[in-house]
Structure prediction request, 481 residues.
Amino acid sequence: MRRAISLSLLASTIALTSCSSTQLDTLGREHGTAVLCGVGLLGGALLGAAVNGRNGALAGAALGTAAGCYAGSAWQSRMQALDRIAKEEGLKLTSTPLQIANSAPGAKPAEAGLVTEVESESMFDTGSDQLTAAGVRAVSKLAAEYSKNDGTPANAQRRFLVVGHTDATGTAQINQSLSEHRARTVGRLLRDAGIPASAIYYQGAGAARPIADNTDPLQRGRNRRVEIVETTSEDVLIKRIVSEQNNARYLAYGTVSERKPATVASATQAKAKPTNPVKASNTKPTTDSKGTSALVDFGGSPTTSDQLGYSLKPMTDGLSLISTARAAEPPMRTCQADKPRDSGAALNLATEQPLNQHATREYLPGYNNRVWANTVNGNLVTISPVSILREGAAVGTQPFIQIVTGYETAKKKNLGKLDAVANTYEGQDEVLYRVFVTEDNAAVSCMDIVFSKGNAKASQGALYYPDNGQSYTARFVPIRS
Prediction:
């Protein structure tokens, strides 16, 4: 019977996942106990009846109600307390529960913690990692709530992660460092409230995980935030960190801080300028008044959109927010609206050492430092090595790009190596491999390639290159050599 009740709660929890994070925030804060009591009662009764008729329904309802009420009470209590603090201090705060899916038949998802995001514009002065007076007061109240000890042995296993986030103004390195220092400042207040420093980690994500448009001055402030993640164990904390590191949902917004219309052609301009392939014997760079060199004509078209025509299917890796937050909505921005993203390691507040994530050097099948290449308008484009690790689809070794013009003629010319930086974003079945050329006035500015995780094959891809102050796009789907 208990197993049946667990299955009912699992099914009911899955039903709740269709709600938005805002809806669930409201449910948990205002009606958490009632909702989960009802879920437990109904689910327990239905499955109890299926197992043992009328008697089973009565027993199942009782057990389901008890289990649901307990979980709902804990959820509601914490959410209400955070909501009260937010109202007292004028904070923009959202909280989302964490659960771990259980693969055992009939087992309910395990409560795994809570993620709370606080917009930090009023908490820190511009460019500073020191809390304002209002920030100290607000964070101290939050820390006092999190430090409450419920007296259970499981409480000793709790781990906290404080993540700092910035908008995209400034360099990636400066933003990462500033966000890390801000996260440490908040972590110290958690420690001062009584949480052991050994249980607290902090991380600077910089501008790598935007939740709003960085090119809109009215929206980019939402990206300046502090995230407090409370988990039931260090293992859950590690899963959370891995799931966020290359989470494709953050591709809905780019990391450039201003739009540059001059580099993106309109539909009218696209019709006005036909594409004429350049022969291998005529590869002399042409430079416009802004100094943009068109070294190679890849036979592409003026870029008319900064969104990809697809999105990665969200991961179902056993760690799930009770929300739709992992989906990429709206469609992912291309590399043209992006820059290399720099996110730091999670550091322990007591030791200042990185969290041991037990990382391995196992690769996704077929992505173990291989050469990938294809021709684009008669020019050979090679990217090497393509190195994607199995753990979180992380980049193992950074690549470089080589271009040979006129590859299919007798007058081919090797333009040499271009240094590059790659970021990866993992979906359930595919990985977006995003490459940025780090050299100025290069023949290619960036690439987006979609690799299958199962058969070492690229399914989609595009390269972007400059031509007379405009951005051009050409299809590029490399083949493993």
